[in-house]
Amino acid sequence: QVQLVESGGGLVQPGGSLRLSCAASGNIFSIYAMGWYRQAPGKQRELVASVTVSGSTNYADSVKGRFTISRDNANNTVYLQMNSLKPEDTAVYYCKADRVRIVQGLRDYWGQGTQVTVSS
Fold it and tell me: For a surface tag, which of 34, 49, 51, 109 has the fewest beta carbons within 10 Å of its beta carbon?
């Protein structure tokens, strides 16, 4: 069984920073891509940033220049450094692992979500 465990969310003032972490555990042979999504109340879940095993990254336009995604392949961990946070960044942030190779084949997995609140 594969599990994604997220940490690092919380309450921060506008202009502040937070760092999210997500560690995948289980009988994993490889993970093609890891990423972060977010869902604000009343809105659809949206991609924030993703990174492939080779290091290629993709960012939502709304976070470019403020957020940085990074990955530790050896430990199946992905990070999201969030700087210059704005109230509109408030959401539940979910970690996702795409095309996880396990004994049974390829699967996608989601974390349980971590709340990020940007407010003064």
Answer: 109
Q: What is the pLDDT of residues 69-117, one digit of tens each?
A: 999 999 999 999 999 999 999 999 999 999 999 999 999 999 999 999 9
User: CA-CA distance, 97 to 99, in Å (whole number)?
Assistant: 7
DSSP for 9-68? -EEE-TT--EEEEEEEESS-SEEEEEEEEEE-TTS--EEEEEEETT--EEE-GGGTTTEE
- The Cα-based distances of 100 to 6, 52, 76, 111 in angstroms read 17, 12, 10, 13
Sole residue written with tokens 């509109």: 88
What H or E segment, with its residue span, contains residue 111? Answer: none
Check residue 94 and give its pLDDT.
Answer: 98
Of 11, 19, 38, which is closest to residue 77 (Cα–Cα)? Answer: 19
